[in-house]
Structures are given as structure tokens and as C-alpha cells.
């Protein structure tokens, strides 16, 4: 069994929209009130203070909180408790990864969300309706069919800066493995091209941000002339947020479909471990990194391989995949220069394309990491399922002939 989320677009009425906005405000008030109380308690009593997450006192002070779901307030209190717990683990070294900062106060219009447990909502897919406590039945659009035997876990209601409402429904369902194809691939991720596969197929990166840059600039110029806080300013701000949301959605659509196609077509996927922070040291590269979303591509490949029963391998980031000849194994340190896109091996005389050679080496190294055996690479392992989604073939080039 695994937990899976389905994102649903909500179309609330004006009355329901008011109730949703009230709920966002109430859960934000609960968070800020409890956080301020804990900060003051610690300042007055130091280590003798015990964290307080009781929402009952907050509800007594503000009668209007009775208009929203009590479960949403309790969930936000639990979120604060979990945030404190993760912060304590971070500063004591019990939590892996980057150190976390102290919990912050929430602001209106920034990540407006609230969550309900499974007892407080119901879904009706045939009628395109979701019922939320205190809000009632809200029209929605299901992007995919949620299996009837799935167990509802929770739902998170969110409001974007564009004013659109979404619900993320988390369900528990059985893992559905894809049929095995007997094929494997190594992937060299990059900025010029999104990915180069070990069979020579090249996946071009998108340019959704660049294509909409002039439109974004024009809307931003109009926004700068408006009086902040006025109705016209708010209308123009939503217009800008809608364009930025469109760019983000298109990029997400492309990434999801490319990664799904790769997982569907290959049983073993090997990629290199990349560090986005190291890449950011190069000037003028942040926009490109945002467009290609290398971390997101790797993240999706990893969890989709686990979900669909495929094998995913990360090769050590210090492995010199571009410098090693995939035929004889001789290392050419001159290839460290990123301007060199092709080179001839001094050992065997084979001509290499930089990215294609790296992808082959990543496949060999990844296969060796999980099996301890050397991989006998064979040509002709072509990608077959990219065209299962419309327009994907526009981003895929024919294999390079070396």
C-alpha cells in the first residue's frame, strides 16, 4: 500500500469562497496566536515553559471561529507542533539535511492552506463534487479517476495567488506495477539539453518562461503604475499570477509526462547525482536551472520507479562520466572544459559526443553499483513510448549518429 495525492480544481460559489477565505484566516490566526504564546512563554519562563498547542482558548477569544470547521483548527495546531518537533531535532542534530529555522508567523495571501481529516470530507466523482465540512458540496474537476477501493486519508485546500482554489486528496491505495520491458538506460542531465539517453536519444529542454517573458514584462509594467492596495492593483496582480501559474503548469506537465514515459519504457534507470547549489555559482544560470528543474526530474524519476516497480540508481556525483571513454576506459582530463562537446579517445581512436558518452558511462556504473557486474552495452535500444502523450514527440530528437 502507498499514499497517493490527487489534485482537484475547485469551483466554489461566492458564498463558499467567502467561507474558504474565512477558514484560511482562522487557521492562520490559530497558528500565529499559539506561536506568539509559546515565544512569550519561553521568554518569561525559559526552559520551564512547556509548549502549548490548545486551540480551545483561542476559540473562546474569537467567537467567529465557530463558523469554520473545528477540525481545520486542530490540524493547524498539530502542524505547529510538528514544526517545533522538527526544529528541535534539527538544532540537536537528530534530523538529517539542512538546518531548519525557527517557526515563523504566517501572512495573508502567502500559502493559504488548511487540511481536513478523512471524516470531514467526501468525494463524489460521478457528479464532480467534493463535500467539505462547513463549506458544503463544491463543484470540482477530477484530473484522474480515484479508485473506489482507495482509503481516504486527508484533503488539503489551497488558494493560489491567482485566486484559484485546489484540493489535494491523499488516499491509500495498492501499488500498481507496470509491465517489465527488459530495457535499461543511463541518463546524462544537462542545461543545453534536458537529458541525453545512453541510446543516443536527446530530450530538449523547454522554454516556457522565455516564450512568455515579454508578456510577463508588460503586465509587470502595468502593475507598477497601479496604486498598491487598490482594486485595479489587485486585478493586475492576479493577471500576473495567472501567467506565472500557466508557465509553472506547462513546465510541470512536461516534466511529469517525460518522467512517466521513461519509467514506462525502462526497467533500470541510472542518473548522475547533481548539485544545483554548485551550478548556481555560474553567472546567469539561475533562469536556465529554473526552466529545466533538474532536481524535480530526478525526484519524479525516483518516486515513480518505486511506485511502478522499476529500479532507480543514482551514480556518485564525483564519477567522471564525461571524461572516461566508454569503449576502452581511458580518461581524458581535458574534457573537464564544458566547451568541449566532442572528442576523440587517444586510446582506441573512438569519436565521442560528450553527453552521449557520459550517458553510456552512467549506465555502466549504475548497473555495476547494483549488480557488481560489468554491463555489456548493446546499441539499438530505442525509446518507444514517448508518443503516448500528445506533443511529447516535439521535444525528442532522433538519436545522434557518431
Structural notes for this entry:
By secondary structure, the protein is of the alpha+beta class. It has ten helices and 15 strands. The strands form three sheets. It has a seven-stranded antiparallel beta sheet with strand order 2-6-7-1-5-4-3. Helix 5 packs antiparallel against helix 6 and helix 6 (231-265) packs across helix 9 (294-308). The longest helix is centred in the middle third of the chain and has 35 residues, at 231-265. The chain is elongated. The two termini are 45 Å apart.
Layout of secondary structure:
Elements: E1 2-11, H1 14-45, H2 56-61, H3 70-91, E2 112-117, E3 121-124, E4 129-132, E5 136-141, E6 151-159, E7 165-173, E8 184-189, E9 193-197, E10 202-204, H4 208-211, H5 213-224, H6 231-265, E11 268-272, H7 276-279, H8 286-292, H9 294-308, E12 311-315, E13 342-344, E14 351-353, H10 354-371, E15 396-397
Parallel strand pairs: 8-11, 11-12
Antiparallel strand pairs: 1-5, 1-7, 2-6, 3-4, 4-5, 6-7, 8-9, 9-10, 10-15, 13-14
List keywords for this structure.
2 domains, 402 residues, 6-stranded mixed β-sheet, 10 helices
In a few lines, what is going on in this structure?
The protein has about 400 residues and is an alpha+beta fold.
Main sheet strand line-up: 2-6-7-1-5-4-3
Low-confidence stretches: 376-391, 398-402
Largest sheet geometry = 7 strands, antiparallel
What percentage of residues falls in helices of 4 or more residues?
Answer: 25-40%
State the shape: elongated
